[in-house]
Amino acid sequence: MSQMMDTENTEEDRVSLKSNGKTPTNGGAKESLGMLKTLRKSIRRAAEKSPLTSGGKGLKVTTGNESGSLTPQSPSRSSPVTSPLGNIGGLFNKKDEEGSDTTPQKGKELAHSKTDPNMSRFDSILTRGESIRRSLNLVTKKDKACRQQPLVSVAEGPAEEKTEEKAKEEEYTLPEIPHTPLSVMQINNLIELVELQDAHLNLLALRQEFQQERERSGDDSPVELAKKEKDLNLLYGELRNKIKTIVRDSNSLPSGNKELLEPVVRIIQEEEKRAEQPGGLQDSWREAWREAVGEGVKVKIGSIELEQKENNLSWLAVHLGLLGKTILEDLESVKKDLRWSYPPSFKVFSTYVRSYHSCVGQHLKKLEPQVTEVKDLYALLNWIINGYKSEKIMGGVSLQPEMEEESSDLQLEEDFLKKLKDKYCCKLKEDIRCTLDRVIEQENKTIWRDRKTPEKDEGFLHSQFPMDIWTNLKGLIVCSAAIDAQLKQKVISSCLQELKDFPKRFEAGFRLHCSALQPLWTEYQITYINSFTALQQHMEGYRDTCPAEVEDLKKEINGLIFRLMQGLEVQFKEDVELYLRRMITRKWLTDDEDFKKLSRRTELLSKHCALMRPPHNQDFASRLHYHVVREYIGQLMKKNFSCKNQKHERAASKIRKQWEELRDLFEDMESAHEWLYDVGDELSIIIEQENKRDIKNHLETLVKHYPDFCKKHLVAVLYFRGLIRGREHQLILQKFTELKKTQGRADEDKSHVLFRDMQIPANTDCFSHLPFSCLSSLLPDN
């Protein structure tokens, strides 16, 4: 009859996890004592397996009535208690000794009682689970009323001893599997109470039953077998979830509570051995353990404070600092304490390191959209590339030598770092553009609007903005180089690209706020010629890194400088145009006022050139030197005036004197056109000759120095001399023709072109070029 009731109870207990069935029990004093004795045995067995039991594994715990094997000394009342399980066991041992006279007789009566043995065993485990919950601070209000003694963590021994201990743990022998498993609900309760070893042993027993029934049923799969398989899957799922929760939180628990990891390790190892057998979970338990480690790392990272950027400008720098600190402290804890709770085959430290590589990478990817400012993007890039590997985190001394065998690289998506660098450079270009716009605004506010005279540096006009721009860009480039060489090159390219448009934008702002009528217009133009020259020279230092970008910038700056210098040239030419037009005229011969004005304006030009930095000052002076010479001599070619009555000597003297004055001015300006200095003197020599026959003797030097001086130019000079026609006129032209033929084109220097572009009016005298013999036949006497 008793056997039939046990069978009925067993079948009734094996229900799905979703059911709420209860196991009936019989009351009575005898049954209570039987359950008490069963509980005592169960607790004694748990004490033997507990990692906190003094004396280590394998020692048999005995009561006062037992003898034989080595017996560990009971702790005194003053000594600390190592486990709540030990307290409970000691309490029942004491009661057993006090009632030793009567207990055996009652025990015999209980052996024949109708109490379900599974219920006794289950109740004893419940009591132990309650004790464990108290050790994990998972107490109820009723438990809080009870007095608890604190846990004492086991002292950590040398690494060699721990390694040997873990090696021995790998030789673990599974306890005896119960012949009759507990019910599904009871096993589920054991899992909830973190009684993992007993829950697993009963799961194995249930699994054996399933396998045996499956073998007996053959191809037929009765409904009861399918139900049992479903129960197994649900229970195993609950067990795995509980294990993953323990593993996930293991590095956050106090060190004394990490004994829960021991049954976790045993279960994983045992399930790996039985992976091919039916009734278990198909996927890897070791992989599930790694996932739990990763989840724990992810939870820890997610708990790090992240302020709103509106509340703290340094929100990202603070968060990254806390993240690095958390990583280091957590890995230090794993190395120092947590890894000794596992056998070496689990490679705990390596698993945590790889989990941090992966989880931190995911965390940064999630964080990246919030990072929009240049300083924050830089901080993030620097932390990823340099900070994460530094001694403050993965390269910490406290993590050695274990980290020597591990990679210290973050696990990021393939193009994440490239996108982050591109985003940084894009934001950097936006910031540079705003900075350059502020330069134009500042120049208007401090210089143009108030018509302030530009400053001088070493005697040259200059503005401060080129140095400000260069210093700013150099700082960005140096900082990027501290991250890596690739980013440095990208930053240099970005800076030069954004700087390329600055000359045109600056010119537009300059012309908008200033006009040529402004008194300081010339000084401003010279200032910006010097300033942009200096800026281009600063940027030339990056030609080796970004040659194309430097060349593009140079073209833009040269274009601006050319336009500014062209403006100065046009202004000077307009100022002296009237004075030059009045040279070599009848009034010029008797009045020096126009030349004096020309000279004064040229002197001002010389002063302006002195304020301009090389090489533009010489180029500018040379071009205007050429203009003045061509326009001055050009007036001689226009045949506006012919010297008669011995005025040619006076005219030649005046030309020589004015030419010397102009030559001195352009020499002071360091004009490069030295070949122009002698043209005035050589023409003066021809003009001043008293005897017309001597003119042809002074043509060779002029033809040699100025190959583009041709016959029509000589005719214009002779016209000014007063020699318009006649035999001597023709002889001079014949001599000139012979000299041109003799010299040919071999000595012609194409860079020395002066007379070619001079305009000469058409000759209206039809007899001027006829030979003298023809003209003599027309005379009245002939």
TrEMBL record:
Residues 106-115 have a biased composition (Basic and acidic residues). GO terms for molecular function: SNARE binding. Pfam families: Sec6. Residues 1-126 are annotated as: Disordered. Residues 17-26, 62-85 have a biased composition (Polar residues). One of its GO terms (cellular component) is exocyst. One of its GO terms (biological process) is exocyst localization. This is Exocyst complex component 3-like protein 4. Belongs to the SEC6 family. It comes from Gymnodraco acuticeps (Antarctic dragonfish).
